[in-house]
Amino acid sequence: MQFELSFLDYAIIVGYFLIVFAIGFYFARKERTSTEYFLAGRHVGWFAVGASLFASNISTEHFIGLSGTGYASGLAVGNFEWSASICLLILGWVFVPFYLKSGVFTMPEFLERRYSSTSRWYLSTVSIIAYVMTKISVHLFAAGILLKQVMGWDMYTSSILLVVATGIYTIAGGMSAVIYTELIQTFILLIGAIALTWLGLDKVGGWQELVASVPAGHMEMFKPMSDPEFPWTGVIITPYIVGIWYWCTDQSIVQRVLAAKNIDQAKSGTVFAGFLKILPVFILILPGLIAYALQHKGLLLPGQTIQPNDVYPVLVKALLPVGFRGLIVASLLAALMASLAACFNSASTLMTIDIYQKFVPQAPEKKLVRFGQYSTVALVFISLLWVPIVNKLSSQLFLYLQSVQSYISPPIACVFLVGLLWPKANAKGSAVVLWTGFALGMARFILEIIHKSSPFTNPVLRSLIEMNFMHFAILLFLVSIFLLIVVSLATAPPPAEKVNGLTFKYAGNVGEMQEYQIERPAHRRRNVVASVLLLLMLAVLWLVFS
Length: 546
Hints:
- 52% of the residues are buried.
- The chain has helices spanning 7-28, 34-39, 46-57, 60-73, 79-102, 107-114, 117-151, 155-204, 207-213, 232-235, 238-249, 251-258, 263-276, 280-296, 311-319, 325-359, 365-391, 395-421, 427-453, 459-466, 469-490, 521-544.
- The protein has a domain at 7-225 and 252-392: Sodium/glucose cotransporter (Up-down Bundle), CATH 1.20.1730.10.
- The radius of gyration is 23 Å and the shape is globular.
- It is mostly helical and 546 residues long.
């Protein structure tokens, strides 16, 4: 699958690396406090916030997974992308005011403010482990597949090069370097993906010819309840449960809005990212349908079978002329490095603020920044040690790792969301929900793996294990809400300091606010108009593709 690159292609790739390193070392030259290193000094504007949110989310597994799923199943997986737009609005309008007014650096820190240190330790530990064992490994696994097919690099070469390169500018420049490199990376990955989609549609013969060339169900966003992959009952609910966890409570995402100049800029950034999240359906999933149409017309790989993981690199080789391929490689590198940088920076923030500062509360600013840099070095080193394990992952285990998000996210989403909406939610209820939800989710995960090799015969156990992962996420979310309500009502209510300024009912009970915590009426009106426009666009798109 490897294709030849011209001098121009290599020049584009080298130019991309030079830009990224230049940004990283530019910010490395500045004297920094912990706020500047971990939150870019809270001076980032809405455009950079929105682009950073988008770039840190899109990685190589999106290029592989979305195009491959589009090829095999059609547009239905796009519900996760468009629901993310709504989750971003929830982040901006529901969560952001509380996060910024509380002045926190991390999401575990916010949980401690609202509940207790037990909840903080849980989220810190789970997040750091998840970054290494699922997020970083998934990014490297997908990158290994794609770069081997596109560039001919083996898993070790691609993983080591990208981990080290990303680690260098992340360590050197901190959050400012991460955000502003992600701003550049957003444009690079969008230009590359749009170019491939445009050329693909042209070769198919246009939109109408594409629609006529793929199975009818491929163009529909909602499939029957019996569909094994994307039942409509799961698609209309689960993406919001997972999305609230990922977009509204995960450190690697929320850290970007915490870096905004003020609440208005943070909200505008989430709305802008919401508009950007409309695009993956058309520039990452649609190429899968284009590949399907071209293959069945005999215009792609006649007489050969295309595996879903091969769809994107096959399209790149078949459609892009020499000179454009470097742009695609740069866009793939941009997607991967943006996501890796988000993991490195956010995990180091958690290790510094939620662990080191807990044990050394009087640590001076320079020591916090230095520990954050050392933490990133440690994460880079651990990631390099993890490469041999990633190399042994099968595509099946890769899918298992992806499904873990649906098993760990419901209890976390529950304690954050219910904690804001219901003042009576207390620390004991939060602890019970987090640990019980974790146990139930991991039990499902482990039993599912066992069941694949040695099927269970008990009908009740089989039904729980074979239940679609989206339906299981809904069930776990409902169980979590039930437990939080029951335990909270059965125990003492939280003290005033745990609800004042941290719940909607007592949102006004805050002290004197800093400049970045104040909303301005004119900017708020603009955000309302933009949010309504985004919702109308999504409604029209869902109607068109329903």
